[in-house]
Amino acid sequence: LWLLVVSGAGGSGEVPPVPRAVPEPRAVPELPRAVPGSPRAVSDAELQELSEQLLAADSNRAAPGQLELNLKSSGSDTAASRLFSYVSPDLLARPTFSRLLALLDNYEPLTGRDETETVEEQREQKEFLDAVLDTPVLQLLERFVLSKGLYSSAKAFRADLHSMWFGLYSRSSGKALDSSGFEHVFHGEVKKGKVSGCHNWVQLQALERAERLEYLGYTWDGPWTGFPDVLSLQFRWDGYSKPQGSLLVGSSPEFDLALFTLCFLARPDRQCHISLGGEATTIQTYSWEKQRLVASAYPLTP
């Protein structure tokens, strides 16, 4: 099992969590590694090729007219405005989106408070993973990791996918099992009075719809004219600030999960250089100590 945690460089403003003293259940290969199973390296060329293939397979991403953003420069004015001018209800009703949204009310944002998983919440985790694994995007990733010998079977990959994203760990000096990779990246947390993580646009639009998000402007917008785009922005969530956060916008939940998982497996705790629509970009991931749990994952921006 891995234990999760950190957001790091690239202007994210996040600080690695304090390790919890828990005995390791098994030996872990020394870095660098490709991941479990046979450590067959994944080249930069393979990362770039596969990321483009994942993008081409992402038929659930926002199409023209399904998502409209209201971009304004950070500090350009003091008037409140919304980030999302329009989000198609049909887009949010698709299986992977609706199952992601069902998970987003399961978490306690404040660190230091134990996360409890009810039977219903565990069922929602399974339904979300079943839905994304049923898409061409995750099927493509699954075939790739099996072809590289990273896992012995599809069953082993799927079990580790659940573990690396939903395995609980502590961001509060071991005081509580208060975090997971999924919570940090897709939902977001509040640590020491500031927002930590929260690298998913579906969560941001849900918070804005609930009048809990105050959009303060963007600091960088990528070169993409369609979706997904990469955006760096500032916001407040329930009054807690995120001075700079980056995320993919307009992508499907399965695309974010597949891309972040690929980089977490192939370039853990390092920069992962990929290609989207012919444009180079970089994903940064972090892992929890020597355990194979996601700590953070997000696109780097200037």
UniProtKB/TrEMBL annotation:
Catalysed conversion reaction: ribonucleotidyl-uridine-RNA = a 5'-end dephospho-uridine-RNA + a 3'-end 2',3'-cyclophospho-ribonucleotide-RNA
Keyword annotations from UniProtKB, A to Z: Endonuclease, Hydrolase, Lyase, Manganese, Metal-binding, Nuclease, RNA-binding
Residue stretches making up the EndoU domain: 43-302
Cofactor: Mn(2+)
GO MF term set: hydrolase activity; lyase activity; metal ion binding; RNA binding; RNA endonuclease activity
Top-level taxon of the source organism: Eukaryota
EC category name: lyase
Keyword flag RNA-binding: yes
Keyword RNA-binding assigned: yes
E.C. number(s) listed in UniProt: 4.6.1.-
Family stated for the protein in its record: Belongs to the ENDOU family.
PANTHER family linked to this entry: PLACENTAL PROTEIN 11-RELATED, URIDYLATE-SPECIFIC ENDORIBONUCLEASE D
Quaternary structure annotation from Swiss-Prot or TrEMBL: Monomer.
Protein's name in the database: Uridylate-specific endoribonuclease
